[in-house]
Design brief:
Family: Belongs to the UPF0223 family.
CATH architecture: Orthogonal Bundle
Protein name: UPF0223 protein BA724_11615
InterPro entries: BH2638-like_sf, UPF0223
Structural class: mainly alpha
Shape: globular
Largest sheet: 2 strands, antiparallel
CATH superfamily: BH2638-like
Strand order of the largest sheet: 1-2
Radius of gyration: 12 Å
Length: 89
Amino acid sequence: MEYSYPFSTDWSTEEVIDVVAFFEAIEQAYEKGIVKEVLMERYKRFKQIVPGKADEKRICDEFEEVSGYSSYRAVQKMKQAPEQTKIRM
């Protein structure tokens, strides 16, 4: 992809890598599909780094603006899907 991922300068290198991994999982959900458990694991780590709803919305909106992929929709579909499911947007 030809865009940059949103991140905070307050995050450690490991946190930036983990947030990028979450957004890569969202991309995968849209492009090829991703196993629910993988997306869930990456989302849980993302929420450890970005616990506030307002910050989550801002960062995810920034990502959607540059990528066209909605983290919100992918996460909602993930939450509603049964276990052992592949999430495909």
